[in-house]
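Chapter summary example.
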Amino acid sequence: MSRPGSARSESPPGGALPCGVCAIHADAVLRSRRECHRGPRWIVRHHPDPSPIAGWAFLCSLRHVQGPVDFDDGEAESFGIALRAASRAVQSATGCDRVYAIAFGQGAPHLHVHLVPRFDADPETAAWRVADWYRAVERGERPAAPADDVDRVVERLRARLREQPPE
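The structure predicted for these 167 residues follows.
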């Protein structure tokens, strides 16, 4: 693990399995297509293809930390502000009624908060049903969000985050 306050995103040392989130953050192609903001502590990016919903984004720690228990003081102080700014950007970019913020930290041991648009008119985005939607897209049982829709939302997210950065 990197030392507290490190601005680099790095995979776990010492032969631990590579971190999938760090790999995404280091991938130049994915960065150019889906990254919406990169600051000294936080990255906001759209879900990679196939995306379940246009606007499904992530707030990720730049530094490789599993969760808030590992935050340095700067990360701890700025997390709420970053989460609010990223959530507002998702709401603005999608027109959704609310934004779910979900973090488990087990699938990838690097903090990545799922920011999921919730549309009151669509019961399939309600509460845990959105997880069923996610898994159905992952299994190929439901179509992913159209790429053009995702591209438009990514551009709106970038514009909103330039106006109101999360840090």
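To summarize the output: The first helix runs from residue 20 to 26.
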